[in-house]
Design goal:
Elements: E1 5-11, H1 18-26, E2 33-40, H2 46-54, E3 60-65, H3 70-83, E4 88-93, E5 96-98, H4 102-112, E6 116-120, E7 123-126, H5 132-144, E8 161-163, H6 164-169, H7 184-191, E9 195-198, E10 204-207, H8 213-225, H9 227-231, H10 237-243, H11 255-263, H12 265-295
Parallel strand pairs: 1-2, 1-4, 2-3, 6-9, 7-10
Antiparallel strand pairs: 4-8, 5-10, 6-8
Helix pairs in contact: 5-12, 8-12, 11-12
Length: 296
């Protein structure tokens, strides 16, 4: 008898890519698998597309929700996983594609390593766009994912493959957190003595889509503007965030990654420039939001 695994994700206006993402989930060669997608109030055809796929796959559950940010949707999906008797939960984004055999291999690893409560799944970034900024974002994401087996205390990677009991011990996602929220259960789990490893034996593909500096800064501006909600609700939230803030990330200075900078100097320069811009924006928005909180 195998333990039930629930692949859970939230989605929003992702009708074009969600069939590819779901194909990677539903095609896993694992005998007791459920896939749960909580839709965060999409205004396109995402829900209709998913319902069409679910008609042929009884282990796919679609949860249409009003818009309430992805944390709320993720919590709803994980609650459904509990209801369905899942032993493991895998928290995904709807622009990810699982490698063949990922679920089987991760369950086998956890069966052999009972001390490990959660696994980070390395991401292989890609984009169909060929503009310079999209290439820089793919390059940066692949640098961050070249980090070895051990999850460092200053890692920015969120565990995705959890023993459900281990996930529950962290308190789970906070629905009031919108920025920097995905990694908080992992940080809490590690801080409490839990063991997190990186599943270097498998991976998933992550679509970075079309990236421009303008749309990246617009997206991050919003997240930085609400970052205080996360920092103020986590123990050592500010210190934890600073330790993981762009240039302070140890993974950037791994010898293998330094070699990548030498081989791809233009992409490395673009990544450094992107980090400078994001650092300035982050400091400005966090400081501005703190002033706004005091004024109230």
């Amino acid at each position: 008898m195998t333990d039930r695994v629930a692949l859970v994700m939230s989605t929003f206006n992702n009708a074009d890519f969600i069939p590819t993402s779901l194909a990677g989930c539903l095609g896993q060669d694992y005998p007791d698998l459920v896939v749960i997608v909580a839709d965060d109030g999409s205004t396109d055809d995402t829900v209709a597309v998913m319902n069409g796929i679910a008609a042929a796959h009884p282990n796919l559950y679609v949860l249409p929700l009003p818009h309430g940010e992805r944390g709320v949707a993720r919590i709803a999906a994980i609650d459904k996983a509990r209801e369905l008797g899942a032993v493991h939960v895998v928290v995904l984004d709807s622009d990810m594609v699982l490698s063949d055999g990922l679920v089987r291999d991760c369950v086998a690893y956890l069966d052999r390593h009972l001390e490990v409560g959660a696994l980070v799944i390395p991401e292989i970034a890609f984009s169909d766009s060929t503009n310079f900024m999209s290439k820089v974002k793919v390059f940066e994401r692949n640098i961050l994912n070249n980090a070895g087996e051990d999850w460092g205390n200053r890692s920015i990677e969120a565990a995705r493959f959890w023993r459900l009991a281990a996930y529950d011990s962290t308190g789970g996602f906070n629905p009031k957190q919108i920025s920097f929220e995905e990694i908080q259960p992992t940080i809490r789990y590690a801080a409490a003595g839990g063991i997190v490893k990186r599943a270097t034996f498998t991976g998933l593909r992550h679509d970075e889509k079309h990236v421009t500096l303008k749309n990246l800064l617009q997206k991050k501006k919003y997240y930085f503007s609400v970052m205080n909600d996360t920092l103020s609700s986590e123990k050592q939230g500010l210190r934890s965030a600073l330790e993981r803030f762009y240039f302070f990330r140890p993974v950037l200075y791994r010898p293998d990654n330094v070699g990548q900078y030498v081989r791809h100097p233009l992409l490395a320069l673009g990544m450094g420039s992107m980090y400078v811009a994001l650092t300035g924006l982050g400091v400005w928005e966090v400081a501005r939001s703190k002033v706004g909180v005091r004024a109230k």
